[in-house]
Fold this sequence. Notes:
Blueprint: E1 2-4, E2 10-18, E3 23-25, H1 26-30, H2 37-44, E4 48-50, H3 58-73, E5 82-86, H4 97-105, E6 111-115, H5 121-134, E7 140-148, H6 158-161, E8 166-175, E9 180-188, E10 196-197, E11 214-215, H7 217-238, E12 248-251, H8 256-266, H9 277-280, H10 287-297, E13 306-313, E14 317-324
Parallel strand pairs: 5-6, 5-7, 12-13
Antiparallel strand pairs: 1-9, 2-8, 3-4, 7-8, 9-14, 10-11, 13-14
Helix pairs in contact: 3-4, 7-8
Bound molecules: coenzyme A (COA).
Coenzyme A (COA) binds next to α2, α6, α7 and β13.
Amino acid sequence: xxxxxxxxxxxxxxxxxxxxxxxxxxxxxxxxxxxxxxxxxxxxxxxxxxxxxxxxxxxxxxxxxxxxxxxxxxxxxxxxxxxxxxxxxxxxxxxxxxxxxxxxxxxxxxxxxxxxxxxxxxxxxxxxxxxxxxxxxxxxxxxxxxxxxxxxxxxxxxxxxxxxxxxxxxxxxxxxxxxxxxxxxxxxxxxxxxxxxxxxxxxxxxxxxxxxxxxxxxxxxxxxxxxxxxxxxxxxxxxxxxxxxxxxxxxxxxxxxxxxxxxxxxxxxxxxxxxxxxxxxxxxxxxxxxxxxxxxxxxxxxxxxxxxxxxxxxxxxxxxxxxxxxxxxxxxx
Length: 333
Ligand SMILES: CC(C)(COP(=O)(O)OP(=O)(O)OC[C@H]1O[C@@H](n2cnc3c(N)ncnc32)[C@H](O)[C@@H]1OP(=O)(O)O)[C@@H](O)C(=O)NCCC(=O)NCCS
């Protein structure tokens, strides 16, 4: 699916993020499985990740992220009429974590639901929220991307354990005078689904339903390096922009080698690339909003700047968005 924005300008007007306190270093992982800091750094670029406490669930990470995003947008929970939570680790299958969040935020007039598209979830949720706001179905949307993958990892499997971490980010979307989202490119290849999956977690019976993440790392790596390039090229072409126009590139933070490959192939100067996978690992749906928050913190998200985000993950899915960054003084009241 590819689409460029219609005449209505919709942008991100608030941004927040939250990660658990506990830091798990590569040295800590050396105590758990047969691995080494050297292997993890060389193959992934990950130095440490955050891991949720035993009693910490997705909504515990999503709530502070959402509150920060609302505060930055200068609005209350009651001003929001749509909440989408992109995740594969909701507090429970139902009620939706988005509904729990709506209650905690006092968003009594909001439609609220969860969305499952693996690590690409945040990109899918952005596109849905954009569409609802642009069409006039919602005035202000809260989009949360977050996961607590540590709860569904196999803590004896070194090939997956070292890659992932926990975290969440949130953004507010609303109408602005100009700028904002220029377009989206989203896709899914279900034929590759078994390369990154959670068998035994739903209604289909499996022989060995242990409910833990399984991954074919090499296949996912090949897929990732392919779609990170194609999706970026397609969205740029559809929006009539070029790589040179991009001011900030926010790729999914899965592995620094995947990011380096994409950056080299696309020809994006390193100073325009946001990387925090070294500190957080792969936080799935939390990855892109966490990276956006990092870019905001170091002053790279300047009004008028062109930001390209590309995610990929289980499904197998992928998605890109192109946005001309705006600041809140230009918001329509
Ligand atoms: C997982 C990944 C880092 C593995 O890197 P790689 O260079 O492909 O490594 P390989 O799979 O070829 O494995 C090389 C060896 O390291 C071993 N190995 C795997 N995990 C290890 C670990 N944590 N520590 C030490 N050795 C490890 C393997 O067993 C293998 O040993 P062998 O050659 O004796 O069989 C890489 O494939 C990757 O990043 N894939 C994408 C994963 C991803 O991003 N998933 C999420 C998408 S949203």
